[in-house]
Queue: 2 jobs
Job 1
Amino acid sequence: MDRLTARFGDETILENVSFDVFRGEILCIVGESGCGKSTLLKHMIGLIRSSKGRVLVGGVDIAAADDDQLNLIRQKIGVLFQSDALLASMTLGENVKLPLDGFVGLSPETVQLIVRMKLGMVNLSGYENHYPAELSGGMRKRGGLARAIALDPQILFFDEPSAGLDPVNAAELETLIRGINTGLCTTMVIVSHQVELVLRIADRVMMIDREEKGIIATGAPEELRRSASDPRVRNFLFRVDAERRKG
Amino acid sequence: MSVPQPGYTFQAHWEDEEVLVFALSGRVSLDDADRLLADMEAVLGERSVGSVTVDLAGVSYMDSAGVLTLFRLEDRIRRKGRDYGYTHVPSRIRGIMELIGREELEKPPLRSERETEGIIETAGDVGLKIYLDFRALMIFLGDLVAALVHLAGHPREVRWGDVLFYMRRTGAEGFPIVGLISLLIGLIIAFMSSLQLKQFGANVYVASLVSLAIVRELGPIMTAILVAGRSASAYAAEIGTMRINDEVDALATMGFDPIRFLAVPKLIATVIVLPILTLYSDLFGIAGGLIVGVTGLDLTPYTYLQESQRPITLFYLLSSLLKALVFAFVIAWIGCQRGFQVRGGVEEVGAATTSAVVTSILLIVIVDSVFAVVLHYLR
């Protein structure tokens, strides 16, 4: 990300934001509601294109890419949306198969095995003929993850992955995220405001602030907890401890 | 889309008479999955082997589809009772191997795929569906009537604010479209009938034909169909969305009867508004005929209106309003019932909305047919 500026109408959400995502890491982008986390994510996956600044994926600028280039980039990335975004009219298996449709020369047997393999990776073996409406929230989220990893993407983006999940399902999802990160060597960018998730899973945390319209802190979670002097960063990272004390 | 060239190469050599070694190198990805399997099996097919070893030292990249291909080859070789193994497995590929649950690949689906049913089963399913749908409609009708009876004794419990809101939504906001369509229908009937009646010098009868057709049949039914399209769908979508957001359950837990709270105001509003809209539609339909009569048939506005009025009796007018009342009940009943029957996700709301329009129009036409016969004998 190179000096990205994001605006909605006259309002500037992010200004001159620059950062790198390193291969194989889990980067968590955090900040309070309305600070521009989701806007940043949408720029990173090419859903919004900024006229100012560059978003480089493998050396190609998403903001300036034509449709063919963008399609090639999108084969290298996967996205798990806040709502699972599974297509309700398709079975889970058909949803996971969807990204494979562009690949010619694969036999139906191979496609079916790949679908089973991906569902197995997210602990949903046997559910390929179920419709999303027949699954629980946690299962749908994992189904969305299976679809996101269908092409073994180099980078996986998550928008509030554990939002709406109970602690058990959230913990299961976190384990899967960690397993996929290790097993498939997938780089992960997670947008979240849930401190507990961030502290457990992140290799590196980047905090965005609404007033600064950009990054106010970046580093490993424990390092930030130890050394950050900015009260906004400390308030965010120590919120869990404060809540525990109250509880 | 063209098939890309393989990103891998492999060499097969025999370490002794029995052990075949595949030395794989380059990139193995999703595009190569089937081709790699076919290439390796082609080598295996040439002669019998004691064991197979796949050497992955030269592999620069392999995705999970590539690993899956190796597993499939392994399964086929092991099924023949032969040994199989890997050497020089890079750590990245080992990670993928550990992530894939081998036994899960064999696991059958918990539910079989949808199968095409035979004619008898399909007919049975359709019959059962119609029966269950009819039953659900009747149960809801009973609940709705019970709610109305209760509220007739407790009129202060009716949400009159909501009634006014839906009167505006269903009635006031529907005036422009109902007026325009009625005007055009009146115009079309007058124009088409004038082409025939002119030949007999019976121009003046266009007026009575238009007014009779509009007041007795087209006014009530056209208005009802338009309101069904606008409001039955809106009722179904609104209540359906509330169902999937648990708002209906929330009402119930707060001690409100969802039917009294949500359906009755819509029903009262529609029943009040539809007869008014029907009268309005009648006037515009006659006005459409008047335009043709005055501009194309050389009739004066006074003569046209006199002739329009002649066949319209109080019985026809009241029966038209009675029909509008019943149509209004049908629209609100079906629209609300379809909304309440939504289960599951958002796609159900779309289905309920479509069903609300189709079912209410079907029932309106059926009820109109019954009216046509009954009113004929009553008169």
Job 2
Amino acid sequence: MTTEDLTGRLAPALAAEEAGDPFVLGGQTLTSRLLLGTGGVPSLEALEAAVRASGTQLVTVALRRVEASAAGSMMQVLDRAGVRLLPNTAGCRTAREAVRTARLAREAFGTDWVKLEVIGDDVTLLPDAVELLDAAEQLVAEGFTVLAYTTDDPVLGRRLADAGCAAVMPLGSPIGSGLGIRNPHSIALLRDAVDVPVVLDAGIGTASDAALAMELGCDAVLLASAVTRARDPERMALAMRQAVEGGRLARLAGRIPRRWHAEASTSFEGLPAL
Amino acid sequence: MQVTVNGDAAELADGATVADLVADLLAERASGHDRVAVARNGDVVPRSSWAQTPLAPGDAVEVLAPTAGG
């Protein structure tokens, strides 16, 4: 199935839905609520197909020491796709490293947007709250549009928003784990605690996880491994796109309350005696 | 003069600039990167200043390029 086959027949209806529900991030209006990471991508062809099928407008990239690699071509693929770039500070462990990396990313990519990631633990790759907040404050002061990768702690989320972050991006579970959203209650509390966009970032394993994030009130979802490491990245990218849209629609539509017992959907009035 | 480039010791001609170093490195790695960022002793050297920034013995330079990342 080609990319056009996968996405083309859905496009008109989706575009109509999106038109009435813009997503404003860092002062920019996006029609897609799916942010895609490039980490773990098996090939440039797979990346191009996944980006297209996902409908994403914002794609994360990283900076590393220059090597003879295909990364130059990766940038051509992303340029061709017309997506906005979101550099990350992956691998940074201190505020100092993260701030320096963000400055270098601004120079390399010509954008002051940054996905701020400050890692405090090798095994879980969980954020270091203290360094993260410190880095966020410095980068905001330097004029960066900071999208902060954080834990699902609503208090820390509020501190990051108060520091001027353009978005708070809580994890559902550890990076690359595919464990989904381990604490939906915390994500919902965080959503209520801040006035900036909340982007569920990390832990998504499959489409239902992305839909749940949106149903909980997240404004968008950022995922990489769930697509890039799927057996069929292009198909999974489309699945994520539809899940994000479905979850968003369900959130806006308002779900029914949970009940302990049944509530008949068919009236008992007029029931014949048989 | 002796400097450190991306963690490795390197010998450069006296008076070499950041622009010289980047050109040599990209040629050596046969790299087609056009989005390259340079840090000298931790501080960003803007591309517009590369040609006017001479390196000094003992400098630690990081030359970075885009890669895939989540």
